[in-house]
Fold this sequence. Notes:
The protein is an alpha+beta fold. 30% of the residues lie in helices and 23% in strands. The longest helix has 17 residues, at 29-45.
Amino acid sequence: MKLQTESEYLMLGGNVFKVYAGKGKPIYPEILYRTYDQIEAMLSHYSRVLLVRIDIRNHSAEQTNRVMTKLSSKLKKRLNTKAYGFINRLGYAWAREQKTSEAHHYHLALMLDGHKVQHPHRVIELVGDICWRSNLSAYTPRNCYYLLRRSEIDGQTLANAIYRLSYLAKVNTKDKRPSTTHDYGTSRIKPRTKRHTEAAA
């Protein structure tokens, strides 16, 4: 069983961030730890990373998270084409939730090379197209993106993004799923070595 916390602050990567938690509204720190690991890994490859928030709704109840596996696979394949500048690395984190409806939904965060993509418009359209072809719905929340910079790893933009992402880690609405089905998932981007990171800065 994952640990829970109601603390409004969480240490990530040596810095303390305010998170979406408090008395009566706990979060799972593990989800945020894993998400932050992917942000750090992406920033080790690129000095700028575009982080985009999108919600994905499933139209039918499913016992697995196969739809997210397929979505990420199709998205990576489409991004790694000439039309999108051959983006060959995609970081992501998602959380599965279900309230009162029969079908569940996902909160998704995408992380892309911020040198090739400075604005999420085309990526959002691409996600929408893949969802439409897969019997899913995509919804874009307001203020959906953040341009993160390696040189500002302790800056306000990252702090705002972490607070936004901590919503994915909330305990509420994550209990309506089979015990063998995960309530979150992330990419597995490996960080570059320090020597290579400094050379790419």
